[in-house]
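Incident log, structure service

09:12 report received: a user says their structure output differs between two submissions of the same chain.
09:20 pulled the input from the user's history:
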Amino acid sequence: MSDFYKKILENNKKWVETSLASDPNYFADLAKGQTPPLLWIGCSDSRVPANEIVGAKPGEVFVHRNIANMVVHSDMNMLSVLDYAVNVLKVKHVLVCGHYGCGGVKAAMGNESIGIIDNWIRHIKDVYRLHHEYLDSIVDENERFNAFVEINVKEQVFDLAKTSIVQSAWKNGQELTLHGWAYGLNSGFVTDLNVNISSDKDLDDVYQLKF
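09:34 re-ran on a clean worker, output below:
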């Protein structure tokens, strides 16, 4: 057994002891169920911990993560998480959080083949294609990179709004707002990208579903 593996097992024991020392009912209360107000759709990057960024405790954030925080309409994993969060947990907020320095977004700006992930990256390239005139006009590569991160988040928020899951919730009068953030790895602060959607009115007519 490796030293690293032994360490994480030991860390778990210490975490349990610390948690129980502060609240003897800590785990008993958690086991009773969850009623998180927020679904977080974020990047798989290990440097972007959803709960810690917003100062939330276990049970307060329902989380889905993938490379570059994508909302892909054929992704049954994402759709299943979204459906459960909206229709069972009745979350009131869904937040797409990207981050500056995202490797997936960076890969989508180039042409290097990485492997099977190329098929996932293509979804991000599609976002670049939609905004290539603006992005290509940014001379500084790092500024273009940051702008692409932000644009990608905004597109994913709109893709959430286009889902039948979200639109059905709105149709039924459910309180649900979608948001987009970009997280700074080097600062810890988030940037609110001012894309906050609580109805289908912000969508083109072709995307507004009739129920």
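09:41 both user submissions now match this output. Likely a transient worker issue. Closing.
09:42 reviewer note: The chain has a mean pLDDT of 97. The CA atoms of residues 174 and 207 lie 19 Å apart.
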